[in-house]
């Protein structure tokens, strides 16, 4: 499997957005869990570019703007015509007192806090603020960030959707797309159900889905992924390791969905690892490549916090996987029998 490009068609403008099947997730460059020096961040981005990766994703949330600011320097070195960049809208960063800084999982961040705002004004401000941090209008895709999340559960999601559709947020996205300032619109979320709900309301080009279609989860096969095919909607798959366990295996302290993995998941991962071992295939390689078996999935975007991790991701992505592995996983009931699996000829450059 090579870093081939696949086109996702923007239905409104008929402009193909070319994505390398292995992309780059920019959350670690926002100092996710630990501080990264600026020089190391730039070396990480250079390693991704040198490896042939041309799709990069970032967001205001990642380090409260730090990830975008680090991308701004790389944009001066990279060929903008060959690069595809996505960032996210709906989380506006505002100045605040030191005690009000939104900590989340990022360290050494600017003195900002996050305000969710999916209104027309919120989307436009978020977009313009990202341009200022990036020091460039090189934004190809805008993704609604975590419109499905919030401290008040369903009530918060409904509030966000009201702002999006009743207070002009979606209109802001379509105006930017129709003006040619961006090529595609979508959402970056953690649940496939909100994507399906959004598709029932409006015209989106794609979704960045964190997890939810992995070796451990294939529920989107029932309705959501078939709908994506029908509507010509592409999926960017983040979190292919379910926050860790499909990369580490069922080791002590392994994480599933950002919390310690329950024993039921640990047992299933042990079985997945055993089948992979019989085919001399690392579990992490099967996990990274599996989602691309579905034609709706255009790219997978693991993160990397240094150049070595980028090179490791590329090596994992290019690890040959025998088709018999996928067959055995189905026979053992470890993945669904109706799950499409990667075939090397379909992904070769």
Number of domains: 1
The major β-sheet equals: 8 strands, parallel
State the CATH class: Alpha Beta
Mean pLDDT: 92
First and last CA, distance:
8 Å
- CATH level-3 fold name: TIM Barrel
Shape: globular
Helix count from the secondary structure assignment:
13
| Fourth CATH level, the homologous superfamily | NADP-dependent oxidoreductase domain
Return Rg in Å: 19 Å
Please give the number of β-strands. 14
Q: Helical residue percent? A: 25-40%
Give me the side-by-side strand order of the main sheet.
Answer: 3-4-5-8-9-10-11-14
What distinguishing features does this structure have?
single chain, alpha/beta, TIM Barrel, eight-stranded parallel β-sheet, two-stranded antiparallel ribbon, globular, disordered C terminus
In short:
It is built from 13 helices and 14 strands.
Give an overview in words.
With 349 residues, the chain is α/β, with parallel strands linked by helices. The protein is built from 13 helices and 14 strands. The protein has helices at 38-50, 66-75, 120-134, 154-166, 169-178, 192-199, 224-231, 245-248, 263-278, 283-289, 307-317, 323-331, 344-347, and strands spanning 5-9, 16-20, 24-25, 55-57, 84-89, 91-95, 112-116, 141-145, 184-189, 206-210, 234-238, 255-256, 259-260, 297-300. The chain is globular. Pfam families: Aldo_ket_red (PF00248). One of its GO terms (molecular function) is oxidoreductase activity.
């Amino acid at each position: 499997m090579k870093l081939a490009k696949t086109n996702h068609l923007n239905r409104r403008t008929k402009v193909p957005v070319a994505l390398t099947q292995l992309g780059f997730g920019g959350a670690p460059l926002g100092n996710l869990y630990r501080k990264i020096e600026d020089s190391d961040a730039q070396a990480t981005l250079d390693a991704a570019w040198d490896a042939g990766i041309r799709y990069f994703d970032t967001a205001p949330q990642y380090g409260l703007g730090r990830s975008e600011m680090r991308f701004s320097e790389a944009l001066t070195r990279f060929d903008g015509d060959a690069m595809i960049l996505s960032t996210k809208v709906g989380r506006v960063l505002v100045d605040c007192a030191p005690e009000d800084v939104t900590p989340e999982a990022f360290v050494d961040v600017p003195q900002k806090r996050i305000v969710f705002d999916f209104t027309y004004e919120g989307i436009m401000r978020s977009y313009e603020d990202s341009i200022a941090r990036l020091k460039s209008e090189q934004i190809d895709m805008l993704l609604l960030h975590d419109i499905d999340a919030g401290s008040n559960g369903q009530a918060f999601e409904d509030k966000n959707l009201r702002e999006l559709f009743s207070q002009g947020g979606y209109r802001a996205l379509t105006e930017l797309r129709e003006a040619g300032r961006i090529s595609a619109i979508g959402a970056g979320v953690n649940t496939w159900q909100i994507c399906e709900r959004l598709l029932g309301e409006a015209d989106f080009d794609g979704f960045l889905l964190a997890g939810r279609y992995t070796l451990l989860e294939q529920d989107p096969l029932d309705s959501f992924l078939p709908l994506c095919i029908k509507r010509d909607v592409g999926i960017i798959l983040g979190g292919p390791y379910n926050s860790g366990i499909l990369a580490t295996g069922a080791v002590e302290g392994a994480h599933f969905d950002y919390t310690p993995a329950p024993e039921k998941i640990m047992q299933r991962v042990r079985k997945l690892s055993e089948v992979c071992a019989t085919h001399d295939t690392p579990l992490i390689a099967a996990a990274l490549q599996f989602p691309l078996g579905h034609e709706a999935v255009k790219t997978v975007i693991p993160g990397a916090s240094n150049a070595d991790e980028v090179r490791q991701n590329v090596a994992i992505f290019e690890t040959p996987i025998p088709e018999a592995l996928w067959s055995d996983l189905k026979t053992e009931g470890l993945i669904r029998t109706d799950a499409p699996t990667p075939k090397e000829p379909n992904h070769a450059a």
